[in-house]
Every structure is written in C-alpha cells, then in structure tokens.
Amino acid sequence: MRGLLSLAAAAAMALPALAEPAASFRVDFSNPQISPSHWTMTINPDGSGHFHSDRGNAPATDPQAMETHDMDRDIRLSEPFAARVFQTASQHKPAKGDCESHLNVAFQGWKKLSYSGPGGDWSCEFNYSKDKQVQALGDSFMGVAATILEGGRLEMLLQHDRLGLDQEMQYITEGFGEGRLLQINAIGDILERLADDPEVMDRVRKRAKHLLASREK
C-alpha cells in the first residue's frame, strides 16, 4: 500500500510538468518587393520545425533565373543552434511596445519574432530593431531562410538544369563561407543527393561533400 501511495504521489507531482506547453519560436517575414514575398518559420527546442513560403506578386528581377516554387516543408536545424535561440528568447524579453529602431535604414523586410515558453511569451516586429539581441535573432533566421530557399533551387536545378548546379553550388559555398547563409543542416537532404549522384559534375559532388562535412552537430 505504501508503495502504491508513493507512486500516486510521484504521478501527481509530475502532472504540472506534463501539462506545461512546449516552447516554440516563430518568425514571419514579409517584403512585397522580393520573391518570395512572405515566409514563416517555426522551430522547436530540438531543432525540428516547419518552413512555408509564398512567392507573392513581385516581378522577377532576372527572367532567366530559376525561382523556387512556394515551399511548405518540415525542416531540421542543429540542436546547438536551436538551443542558442531558445536560451536568448527565454532570457531576453524585449521591452513592451515598439522594438523598431525607426532609423533611416534601407527597408529589408518586416520580421516578426514570436516566442512562447519559459520566461514569458513575447513578440516583436521590426525592419531594423533597436534591440541588438532581437536584431541578431532576426539576422540569424534570415540566413537560415536563405539557405532553405537555396536548397529549393538546388532541387529544381537537379530536375531541370543539372549544368546550372555548378554555379549555384559555388554561390552556396561562398555564402556559407561569408556568413550570408546559415545552417547547412537545413538542406542536408539535397546535399546528400548531390554528393551521391554520379550524373552531376564532379565539382558539384565535391562541394556538396565539403558542405556536409562542416555541418553543425
């Protein structure tokens, strides 16, 4: 009987923890002047998440460029990256009110960051934020989104224009080297396909293998 009571007490103590909602982080981006004009990204503390993009009505800047179709897919980012995001989001709650700097800076698109979890829920919308940590989070997710969109282009090129993969892979390699693109993990699947495909250029396969080797664990 004493053992049963102990088990019941332990179960009762665990109920609040089980009932606590999981933390989540979401980014909404919009800029009608570019394509895609809108995308959303949600991630969970383990790095899993989802990405959705809409092309919108922006005119093509280069008629010969192959644009990605609207995307709607699950994504996987590295756990260390997700841990840094949630640590910052839970420990640094932006001041209530407007977090936009109102500085005379070029329009880069509206970013709305939304966090729910330990430390309190918050959201913040800005083109360029006066809060340095919020701005840094926004910059990071812009880099991740750019990577995901590049992955979509690689998929289209693999299907329709294999010769175009060489130039695209050079751009992607340079982008990661310069920090414009972040989280190789987000396009690991297509890079693995390229690395193992004997019908694409050897240089493309080598670059894909090099990028995969530098993935954040």
Describe this structure as you would to a colleague.
The protein is α+β, with helices and mostly antiparallel strands and 217 residues long. The protein contains six helices and six strands. A six-stranded antiparallel sheet has the order 4-3-2-1-5-6, covered by helices on one side. Helix 3 (132-160) runs antiparallel to helix 4 (165-178) and helix 4 packs parallel to helix 6. Mean pLDDT is 89; it is low at 3-9.
What percent of residues adopt helix (DSSP H or I)?
A: 40-55%
Assembly type of the shown chains? Answer: single chain
Order of secondary-structure elements: HEEEEHEEHHHH
- Rounded to the nearest angstrom, the radius of gyration is 21 Å
Quick one: how many beta strands?
6
Strand order of the largest sheet: 4-3-2-1-5-6
Estimated structural class: alpha+beta
Regions with pLDDT < 50 over 5+ consecutive residues? 3-9
Number of helices: 6
Q: What portion of the residues fall into strands of 2 or more residues? A: 15-25%
Q: What is the 3D shape?
A: globular
Major sheet size, sense and barrel closure: 6 strands, antiparallel
End-to-end C-alpha gap: 47 Å
Give the overall pLDDT as a whole number.
Answer: 89
Descriptive terms for the model:
single chain; 217 residues; alpha+beta; 6 helices; 6 strands; globular
What's a quick, concise take on this entry?
With 217 residues, the chain is of the alpha+beta class. 43% of the residues lie in helices and 17% in strands.
Helix and strand topology:
Elements: H1 2-19, E1 24-30, E2 38-43, E3 48-54, E4 72-76, H2 79-91, E5 110-116, E6 122-126, H3 132-160, H4 165-178, H5 188-195, H6 202-213
Antiparallel strand pairs: 1-2, 1-5, 2-3, 3-4, 5-6
Helix pairs in contact: 3-4, 4-6, 5-6
